[in-house]
Amino acid sequence: MKKKLSKEELKLLVRFIQKRGFVELDIQLEILDHFACKVEEILSEEPNLALSDAMARAHASFGVMGFSTIVDSYLNGIQVSFLRTLKSEFFHFMKSLQGQLLLIAYVFVYILIVQNANLKLMQWFLVGSLLTNFILTIIVLNKGWKKRKLSIRLSSFNGIIFPFYILVFNLSMQMISHINSGFLMDIKWRGGVIILLLWVMSVVSCIVERIIEKELLRLQKDEILA
Question: What is the CA radius of gyration of the chain?
Fold first, then answer.
């Protein structure tokens, strides 16, 4: 008969995992899934074996690297998973009233500022939009930073989001420099690209908050790790 671990026994497995230095809750859940299956398999074959001995034997079965092989595999899929989630949340957001109003606002800005080549207003808009998006993003990601030990996924967000923000910032600064120096070649084309990127930045700032909230809620609902 196949052994099924109880909730209390699963908590003992979690403590075993924690003692090996894995503090992020999502990492613990990923390891627990594999670890519990192996322990149950061993106990099904040897019902009289002590749980502690079964855990030691199960841990040894993962090889000299122990749980690290599970973690490496999990980490490799994190960014792919996040980008997939980002894509899904993007389409969901664009169907909402907030998303549609944001798009209309940026189209209006493009027509008013870029098409009319209102260079002074363009400078102010670029600076204001960058500062606003930066502040909003810091506020949103601060939720993840404060609870970064809850999920290693939250730490991975920064590695994807900030390089994109740095790119937009650099392009915007170049545009402002060109305006100040009087270099106005392709100003409408360049301005259009930057407005588009700023819109994407604004959308990402909105949907990342939703992703973080869902991730934290998913982990905090788990009774085993509570």
Answer: 25
| Contact indicator for 144, 155 with CB cutoff of 8 Å | yes
Summarised one tens digit per residue, pLDDT across range 176-211 is 776 666 655 566 777 778 888 888 888 887 787 677
Classify burial at 13, counting beta carbons within 10 Å of its beta carbon; exposed 0-12, middle 13-18, buried 19 or more.
Answer: buried
Let me know if 151 is exposed, middle or buried by CB neighbors in 10 A (0-12, 13-18, 19+): buried
What are the structure tokens assigned to 112, written together? 């008013």
DSSP state of 182: T
List the domain boundaries for the chain.
Answer: 7-66, 78-220
pLDDT digits (tens, 9 = 90+) for 104-153: 988 888 888 777 767 777 778 877 877 887 777 677 666 655 555 555 55
